[in-house]
Amino acid sequence: MKILVIGVGMYVTGRGTNTFGTIFPSIIEFQRINKIKKFEVIFAGRNFSNIQKSKKKVLKALKISKIDLSKINFKVSFYPNKKNKKQTYKDILKNEKNLSCAIVAVPDHLHYQVINECLDHDLHTLAVKPFTIKTKDARKLIEKKNKKKIFGLVEFHKRFDKHNLLLKNAYDSKRLGAPLSFIVEYSQKKIVPEELFKTWAYKTNILQYLGVHYVDLVYFVTRATPVRVLAIGQKNWLKKKGINTYDSIQCIIEWKTKSNIKFTQTLSVNWIDPNNSTAMSTQKIKFLGTKGNFESDQKARGIKIVSDDTHVEEPNPDFNMAFQEGNRTEWRGYGIQAITQFLSGVRKIKNKNFINSNYYNKSKEDEFFKYFNFSSTSFEEAAISTAVLEAANKSLKNNSNWQKIK
Hints:
Layout: E1 2-6, H1 10-13, H2 23-34, E2 40-44, H3 48-65, E3 75-79, H4 89-95, E4 101-104, H5 111-120, E5 124-128, H6 135-148, E6 152-155, H7 162-172, E7 179-189, H8 191-196, H9 206-222, E8 225-234, H10 237-240, E9 248-256, E10 262-273, E11 281-289, E12 293-297, E13 321-325, E14 328-332, H11 334-352, H12 365-369, E15 377-378, H13 379-397, E16 403-404
Parallel strand pairs: 1-2, 1-4, 2-3, 4-5, 5-6, 7-10
Antiparallel strand pairs: 6-15, 7-11, 8-9, 8-16, 9-10, 11-12, 13-14
């Protein structure tokens, strides 16, 4: 199995943080369990400097995981591999043989371009959120994916969080009644736009980078259709720092269920939380129904750590946590699961040789999809949140007017 990872930033390797990210630890755990005989991970970065920093992270992660490379084949390659050499993911796509799949973790505005080229090379592709920024681009990718009989997923890991699965179970069982409103508060530390994403933060906004998770979640829980959206944003702190993007955005989305019941989702998102906040993300969701309520504080997971060496911490052991097992490190959580299930699905699909058969077609998509976790987000489903983002961005540019969602 040969995996191409496009992007080597914070979420991939933990570059710029004291962690190892989520994508590479997920790949480690996948290979630890499966012990695939021929296994290679190819990292494609933007420049040699970033690759060198990420390479140190990757090699250290392998070391502390105590994977015995003499018993488990685990080859890693990095491009560009020489200073002043302009090797890109395009060169790898063109020249590398027998790639199994691609994981795309690049800045938001590059998603369409990179995913499109992966599909051009017949690669099953997992992309981090958001899927695309424009609905027309989402449609093009869906059409190409279906025409080529390959598979595409978007890594909306909030669907795998047991907090949210409990909400879905309660909703599906009709214990909460008909939906009236969803209220979401979601924010991250200033370090994210100011340092970690400084080179491209001005090309995105907090709604499409972060808030989109909970747009997708409302669709996942209710299977409702978004009807219209209104968005209001504030530019203050980040603009003074020379980053021309919104500090905070408030968004109201009107949804309609299959039984024509309308309800609203209110999103309040920002990425200017103090850097000494007790967690990277502050996140709360409240569902109000005609028969009951559901509340989830997804920052306060019931754990608080205080020590002389660090400030107060409230870790989230459910997302992606490094645990010590004897003398080795293992990573567990729904963030890990969202990626390992994609890799497991690709492996099963490859073994079934779906691409070279007539098995995959529109009418049998559910059969094809069974090789993935039911929480997985297909390109088709991810296009729902893309449509909301596109309308919300139009609202921000048009005096916060209501915008119909196509």
